[in-house]
Amino acid sequence: MDIMNTKDTNARRNRLRFIWVIPILLLIVTAIPKVIGLEFMVINMQKANMGHMTFYIGVIELICAIVFLIPKTRKLGFLLCVAYIGGIMSAQWIGKSFNMGLIMQILLWIGMYFEDSNLFRLSDSKF
Q1: C or N: which end of the chain has fewer Cβ atoms within 10 Å?
Q2: CB atoms < 10 A from the CB of 45, how many?
Q3: How far is CA 74 from the centre of its chain?
């Protein structure tokens, strides 16, 4: 019975670990218009008084997502994405808009927990 429970738990963990795909795709989808300089994105960034940094923010966003997608650098990418999304959250709280960053952050943390739960253990961490 224990072997079956272990297999079920591992199968569920493997399915749930890909929850991080949602925030990473959102980062990529919002980074591309910033890098290209599409008008709607520049206007949105100007509303947040960051219009002059649109390109650079998009490049940083893409770097965070790409570093996360490479399996060998996923832990570093996770930390970069958490920090970047934290900036999104603070900008949205200041602007008093719906905080999509909070949802992205929660999904990223849950997905990373199922990806590598050892990262969240205080003892014997192999970071």
Answers
A1: N
A2: 19
A3: 11
Query: How many domains is the chain partitioned into structurally?
Result: 1
Q: How far apart are CA 108 and CA 115, in angstroms?
A: 10
Predicted confidence (pLDDT) per residue in 78-123, tens digit: 999 999 999 888 887 876 777 788 899 999 999 998 888 778 777 6
Nearest to 64 by CA among 52, 51, 75: 75
Q: How far apart are CA 108 and CA 70, in angstroms?
A: 15
What is the spatial distance between Cα 104 and Cα 101, in angstroms, rounded to a whole number? 5
- Output the pLDDT for position 30: 92
Instruction: For residue 101, tell me if it sits in a domain.
Output: yes
Note whether residue 127 is domain-resident: no
What is the residue type of 2?
Answer: D
Quote the pTM value: 0.80
Q: What is the pLDDT of residue 12?
A: 65
Say what the pLDDT of residue 5 is: 58
Residue 36 belongs to a domain: yes
59 domain residue, yes or no: yes
Cα–Cα distance measured from residue 27 to residue 104, given in angstroms and rounded to the nearest whole number = 9
